Amino acid sequence: MNLIKSFFSLEKQRKRLLSKAPEGALKQYLSVPIIDLEQPIMDSDILAVDFETTGLNAKQDNILSIGYVALAASQIRLDSCYHQIVAAHCQLEDDNVTIHTITDQEKASGRPLASVVEDLLTALAGKAMLVHYAQIEKNFLEQACIKLYGMAPVFPIIDTLALAKKRHDRCSQAYSPSTLHLTSLRDEYGLPHYAAHNALNDAIATAELFMAKIQHSELKGDTKLKSLITSAFS
Amino acid sequence: MNAALNDIVDFIKVIPPFNLLNDQDCHLIAKRTSIGYYRNETILNVHQNDQVMLYIVKKGVIAYYDNAGELQGKFSEGDLCSVLCRPDTERLQISLRVEEDCLLYAIDFNELEELLTEQPTALQFLLQTAPQRLQNTMGAITESALIASSLTNAPITDYYNSPAITITTQASIKDAAKYMTEKGVSCLVIMADEQPAGIVTDKDIRRRCVAEGLNIQHAVTDIMTANMATIDINLCGHDALALMISQRIHHLPVTKYGALVGMLTATDLMNQEGHHAVNLSSVIHKASSVDVLVELSLMLPKLQVSMAKLGASADYLGKNISALTMAFTIRLIELAEQKLGNAPVGYAWLCAGSQARQEQLVYSDQDNALIIDDSATPEQEAWFEAFAHFVCDGLAACGYIYCPGNIMATNTQWRQKKRVWQGYFNDWVTQPDPQALLNSSVFFDLATVYGDSSLLQDVRRNMLAKTQKNTLFQAHLSRNALLQKPPLGFFRDFVLIQDGNNKKGLDLKHNGLAPIINLARIYALAEGIEDVNTIMRLRLAAGTPSLSRTESANLIDAFELLGMLRAEHQAKQLIKGEEADSYLLPKEISRLEREHLKDAFKVIKAMQSYRQMV
Question: Chain B residues within 8 A (CB-CB) of chain A?
């Protein structure tokens, strides 16, 4: 796909969607122009996002929790950090409980999906979304928007997994898929482990990995944002 | 609180001074934090705009340098780069360079100051200079030593001084100060119509008068504390202690039926703990043979442990152990004279080094010497050889190993007439070659254990008169003394030394205490001070051209801190039945103790470099 063309389309598509969007959070999100993709990454406003979900299928499974944190001027700003458990109707399956350490009781203290997604969309407006393995956050957020607003918007997404994959693919050596896990990639840069596995920690962890990647020569700080956008369309 | 930030809160809350805060406050700090990633060799911009950032190393290493590009220290995981909180004048002298890829937590210092307005202790920790922090630390330690001490249910009458020293409300501040000096007390009760109206202490004169620039002709009532706390004579030592701690005071007027009958000080309570040492020394004086002395010497390590556990200061510990060594030596001398007959001429048995300075701990080697009266004939001198062997062998049997450098009275060189000794000192001072300097550092710390103390006094006065005038000798001695440097600080679980290299452990004796001992000796020689105890030398040199009062106080704080850590370290070893040494591993000490040690190193380093410039 012609990249340049796709970015033009990204902004064009935003405007098209804006005209159809129902009143509310989605419309407000769409009313803010897509971040200028010609600017250097160093100067770009980025929101690192992570979802914990009950499974991999966005159509069947649910979002358990959402965490995000802003990245501005190459600094992760913890004052912008956000973590919210989503109240859901289905019972948690035992397996996932151990991974996410979200218990039914905690989930009961969660807020409705609509309000959590609204927070996320507000924070995302005008920013690039940074995730590790975009398929989860992208698909689940689109599904949530379709459910809540009847349509899915567009997001400029930077995917640290895709960036790492591209780098590994360039080397002729074969590699195990596990080398692309967030923790393995962080190990490569000597980044410390977080004790708890939750959506906010993972968002921070992804942002730290991204900063390390920028600081190591593989990504130059003056690289234009658009060259990192790995997935833009639904 | 957002529990999802717990990882970051947990990391922050163990770092001094945030360890003083509760979880909620740490959470607020975490929320104000931003995280950045910096490559190796990046120079961190510490003075951009007016924004002062405080960094905490989450991962990686930062080295910091002074203006001249000399390495000052390193920060690694869990270290707070507190150099950045210093006032601009100091902060701008510092440059920070990343040495290993870093993940850094940054907090805007102005925001932090706001967050910590309710937490003055934590804020002080960040704002104070190393000497100031050290002073607070030692103050707090003295207080906790009081808490730890085993003051049982002994009544106050066991401790207090009666009557209380008083002065009337008509007295001026000057009158009060003069009277306190005359009476040798640190506080006075102010009486109005025979009734106690308030109390004034050394500290009040310092803080409310001198520091404020108050005229000393003002009434003493201007600086007294009215409504003072008092304690009833029927209560016990414990109660007095509890009151002192809760009120943060060191002086308590004692009352009986409401009338003033005496004064109780924190020092009185502390001194109470010294009785074991006194008991032991009286038993030593009665020992009938070397075997009995050997038996008694086995109690020394236990005594050191029990005193250390009671929270005794290193100064106190050193004085007690040194006094006991002296008691052993004196008893051995008496036994030698019983066996060999009385000495044919006058003499003085001297001790050198830590024992002379009264800073000795158990398992020290023996350093001793003999001055013999000039009238002795060669035959008479022979008596002293047998005498010296008896005493030194006896000391060795009691656990004081023979001096590896052979500085003992058994060595003919150090068993000489007064005349010869005077010649030695003259040569050392006029021709300061390396050996002479080494000798002088040992023999400038001498004390008479037994015999005619005027012999040493004569030699010493003669020597001090020479050293005081001889600035060249002072310079040589300084250079020599400054060879032993404190480390820069800690780096992960290593000790970071001058050239940026690491060492596994910290030699508290050679790289901490010895530099201060050496400095104190230089001040003493330059100012003609006869005392050899390091703290006394520093006290007496305070306010002379060699040393300001503040510098003296700073060095004393550093010396006491290092001594205390050594005593604690040794107590642990002795309890385990190991031989005690002064080699501390960074793993043994808490983060806070590391910070305290770094402060002490800074104080020493400042004084060393000042001396270097002289």
Answer: 2-8, 10, 30-39, 58-60, 77, 101, 103, 106
| Architecture label for domain B156-266 | Roll (3.10)
Of A190, A196, A207, the CB nearest to B59: A190
Please state, in angstroms and rounded to a whole number, the distance separating the CA atoms of residues B534 and B134: 18
If one counts every other C-beta atom within 10 angstroms of the C-beta of residue B174, the result is 15
Domain locations in chain B as residue ranges: 3-127, 156-266, 287-427+440-453, 480-613
Predicted confidence band of residue B152 (pLDDT cuts 50, 70, 90): very low
Lowest pLDDT segment from A5-19, B263-277, B346-360, B546-560: B263-277
Instruction: Give the pLDDT band (50/70/90) at residue B549.
Output: very high
Supply the pLDDT for residue B271. Answer: 65
Q: Which residue has the higher pLDDT, B408 or A110?
A: B408
Instruction: Quick: pLDDT tens for B387-399.
Output: 999 999 999 999 9
Which residues of chain A does B2 touch, with a Cβ-Cβ cutoff of 8 Å?
81, 83, 200
- The fold of the A3-231 domain, in CATH, is Nucleotidyltransferase; domain 5 (3.30.420)
Q: Count the Cβ atoms, other than its own, within 10 Å of residue B333.
A: 20
- In degrees, rounded to 5, the angle at the alpha carbon of residue A189 between the alpha carbons of residues A187 and A190 is 60
Tell me if A208 and B37 make a contact (CB, 8 A cut-off). yes
Q: CB B32 to CB A78 under 8 A?
A: yes
**Residue of chain B with shortest Cα separation from A77:** B34
Q: Is B494 helix (H, G, I), strand (E, B) or coil?
A: strand
Q: What is the pLDDT of residue B267?
A: 75
pLDDT at B48: 61
What is the DSSP secondary-structure string of B203-247? HHIIIIIITTT--TTSBGGGTSEES---EETTSBHHHHHHHHHHH
For chain A positions 175-214, those within 8 Å of chain B (CB to CB) are: 189-192, 194-196, 198-201, 204, 207-208, 211-212, 214
Q: Read off the pLDDT of each residue in B534-557 and give the average, rounded to a whole number.
A: 94
Q: In what order do the strands lie in the sheet with B489-491?
A: B489-491, B494-496, B502-503
Region B136-151 average pLDDT: 62
Lowest mean pLDDT among A81-90, A212-221, B49-58, B554-563: A212-221
> What burial class does residue B283 get, using C-beta atoms within 10 Å of its C-beta: 0-12 exposed, 13-18 middle, 19+ buried?
middle
Q: Which two tokens stand for residue B251?
A: 């002086």
Q: Nearest by CB to A75, which of B10, B34, B60?
A: B34
Taking contacts as CB-CB distances below 8 angstroms, the residues of chain A near B58 are 192
> Is the domain defined by B287-427+440-453 classed in CATH 3.90.230.10?
no
DSSP-based three-state secondary structure for B185: coil
* CATH 1.20.1420.30 corresponds to the domain B3-127: no
Q: What pLDDT is attached to residue A200?
A: 94
CATH topology agreement for domains B3-127 and B156-266: no
